[in-house]
Amino acid sequence: MASKHQSMKLNDGHSIPALGYGTYKSEEVPKSKSVEATAFAIKAGFRHIDTAFSYEVEEEVGQAIRSKIADGTVKREDVFLTTKLWCTCFRPELVRPYLEKSLKKLQMDYVDLYLLHYPVPMKPSEELFPVDEHGKSSLDTVDFCETWEVMEKCKDAGLVKSIGVSNFNHRQLERILNKPGLKHKPVCNQVECHPYLNQSKLLEYCKSKDIILVAYGALGTQRYKWVDPSSPVLLDDPVLGAMAKKHKRSPALIALRYQLQRGVLPLAQSFKENEITENLQVFEFQLSAEDMKVLDGMNRNFRYLPAEFLAGHPEYPFSDEY
């Protein structure tokens, strides 16, 4: 196997490619770009594609994957595809119908990994971000452990190969792990993670439970509507810049390599072909223990995406330290 196809073992026996291609796009990017960029990422060598119901590009992502299967670049089993259950679909009776909706949009028989997108339920709605008459988020009271039980059934039914969570803190993970009658534990927890928010305590906790930490926002993040425009640009940080010079690599590659060496699985997102190709070079070099220490020192517990629309809920995950 080429080094760019390195993978990690999940706690249910499946394997996940160690670098993922993220498909979130901001509103101003046309949907056709999602098809082109995802197809290009697969052609370049990405085998792990991460999407979500709430990104509203499942159809485009599915189209891109199918086009690369049709032209012989990959077989379906070569591609590891993740999608996520959105917060408005947490009521147990909605879980499977919404998974089936995602599968229909993707035009796939199964997904490799299905995640609870946040630990916070919102009222069922056709809107992704339902609000009440005061303009506040319409939050719900479903216990995510009940949602998890239906996710387990979806795995048993073969609609998904593995199940996991996203944006959970350690206390919330603990609740699932200690759930009476637990059949399948989460294989991963996908969270915002980068040198400014290195999640070292959560990472340590996840490793102790054999749960892989997957990093979104691993390169900082794009300046879209959820992100404070005055927030610092991670890839412009002089520490990353100096390290990039030293290794004759880009700051993005240093940020991705940092995660891999900590045992974190990073997602890289770009619509630029040169960047997509370059991100796959992350397996071609090593950072020293000294480099890793310097990068650890960049942590400032800074979150680009605090998910304020969920902040009024008792399960809001980011009030805890980790």
TrEMBL record:
MF GO annotations: oxidoreductase activity
Organism: Jaculus jaculus (Lesser Egyptian jerboa)
Site, Lowers pKa of active site Tyr: residue positions: K84
Residues at the catalytic site: Y55 (proton donor)
Keyword Transit peptide: no
The family this protein is said to belong to: Belongs to the aldo/keto reductase family.
Name of the gene this protein is made from: LOC101613638
Domain of life of the organism encoding this protein: Eukaryota
InterPro entries in the cross-refs: AKR, AKR1C, Aldo/ket_reductase_CS, NAD(P)_OxRdtase_dom_sf, NADP_OxRdtase_dom
PANTHER family reported in the protein's UniProt record: ALDO/KETO REDUCTASE
Residues annotated as binding substrate: H117
Domain NADP-dependent oxidoreductase per the UniProt entry, residue ranges: 19-299
Keyword line: NADP, Oxidoreductase
UniProt name for this protein: Aldo-keto reductase family 1 member C13-like
